[in-house]
Amino acid sequence: MAETLCTADTHVGYRNVSYRGCTNHYSLHFLLALSRLSSMEAKQKLQQRLQNSIFPSHSPIYKSLLQAGPRLRPLQQVHAQIIVSGFQRSRALLTKLLTLACTSGSIFYTRQLFFSVPNPDSFLFNSLIKASSKYGFPFDAIFFYQRMQFQRLFQSNFTFTAVIKACADLSALKIGKVVHSHVLVCGFGSDSFVQAALVTFYSKSGDLFIARKVFDKMIERTVIAWNSMISGYEQNGFAKEAVEVFYWMQEVRVQPDSATFVSLLSACSQLGALGLGQWVNDYIVDNGFVLNVILGTSLINMYARCGNVEKAREVFDRMHERNVVSWTAMISGYGMHGYGSQAVELFHFMRSHGPRPNDVTFVAILSACAHAGLVNEGHEAFTCMKRDYGLVPRMEHHVCMVDMLGRAAFLNEAIQYIEELIPGEPAPAVWTAMLGACKMHKNFNLGVKVAEHLLAIEPENPGHYVLLSNIYALAGRMDRVETIRSMMIRRGLKKQVGYSLIEFNHKTHMFCMGDKSHPQTTEIYLYLDELMSKSRDAGYIPEPDSVMHELEEEEREFMLRFHSEKLAIAFGLMNTDHGTPITIVKNLRMCGDCHLAIKFISIVTNREIIVRDKHRFHHFRDGSCSCQEYW
Ligand SMILES: [Zn+2]
Ligand SMILES: [Zn+2]
């Protein structure tokens, strides 16, 4: 309490007391030296008086310390006052001074002070470890912890929670594991605070197996522990597991808080789990949670990434407070769905009424323009980025510009942009965008050059080999396709495995190419056969090219129809009522044949099918796609 008051009153307090009795013009070092020279007798007397008694918290010096608060200069002045008054050995004063110094952010001064304390005790160490861990000095927290170990002082659960947090901030897995062993030796293995800290530490360090082991052993799980486990899974790409832990949390009736929802919504975004995301939204509303800026932005992201951009906008409009991240999320949401003009409109509105756009906002708007073919608007945004906001374009912005020009068939301009406007060596992503454009506009000669260049800068990336073999195949140079493939095999490079996700009944179902693991496999394949024959009757002709070219996705499988997205769509259509839109999330780019087939499926079933691929959304309705072949 005293600390909080003191922080709030610091400013006033400092003005009133800082010069009282304090020799401001004396340098600290001089005073330190002076204190060392003081007579032995006086020293002994003081030591007796101070070390045997607790320093009274109502004494003027202690009050001065509280009033100085966590600010370096006033603290140094009180420090001088302490030395002059002969209290430099008071444990209470030094501990307070040290923690305040650490809180003030001056870790150098803190360390200096620390070394002037003879035989520091557990309490001092604990305060220091706690403060340095809390105020962003994880290295120092670990340093003080090691000193404490060295001096064989008693460690409490506070010591461990603080030092484990420091290890988590540094993702220092090795040191953290050593601390974990100390925890067990010292008998704190079942302390719920220490366990919660360990769960966070292992989750943040990416060792989810041990995180889960510690979590499972916990008898008392706080909401913080649940949140750590959920966010650990979510941030390491195990969205499904994150959702499962959340369902478990619901079963044991632990009340979630807004941090739970932020992680959960992000997991929903990864999975395209609109149903669960919608449920979270309702829960937030029904339980009177404040739609703060973080939660609101998470909802925007979830709706946009789960295919419902209109709902995202509803949340955006409902938010009382929005920051640059919320605006950017909304613009990027429009962009992902190919709603370029809405993105541009919102961006203009942001410029006149919203917060100052940052460089991420510009990535969002440029990418929206690229995906919607809005070349003029994109150029305009790029110009104002530098002119009006003084932002220097980063590689991401250059990638968007090349992508935008390339998609709009300005291949020469795109190459010129790469050669003249990008300082230094262009990142592989720039060449990848260029290559995509060459493929889209069937300029295979340029494509081969770009792909070879790409391979030269990143010879270990399997994706580049795939792209190069695609482009050779398109150019009809099958001999080169074989060479590239065998090169890839020789180097032991494996391409990414494609999969598609679909949410049904609050559960996510995953399909891989030719998957036969689903309980409904027989029905799915029969239904898919029927679907494809109906589509053929409606005029669909499979694109055999895709088998050859789209090696990136699912290589040359024997049959195109078993691509993961087709299986997921068949499953979705079979199990949902007529009129319900189907949403699929695919981890890679769709192949040309799937894109074409889904158009026909949308006709013969009279359904809306939404597919999120690696780059954007495709809304298929009545035989056409929202991307207008722009992908
Ligand atoms: Zn396909
Ligand atoms: Zn499309």
UniProtKB/TrEMBL annotation:
One of its GO terms (biological process) is RNA modification. The keyword Repeat applies. PROSITE patterns: PPR. InterPro entries: DYW_dom (IPR032867), E2_motif (IPR046849), E_motif (IPR046848), PPR_At4g14850-like_plant (IPR046960), PPR_rpt (IPR002885), TPR-like_helical_dom_sf (IPR011990). Keywords: Repeat. PPR repeats lie at residues 222-256, 292-322, 323-357. It holds the Pfam family PPR_2. This is DYW domain-containing protein. It comes from Tetracentron sinense.
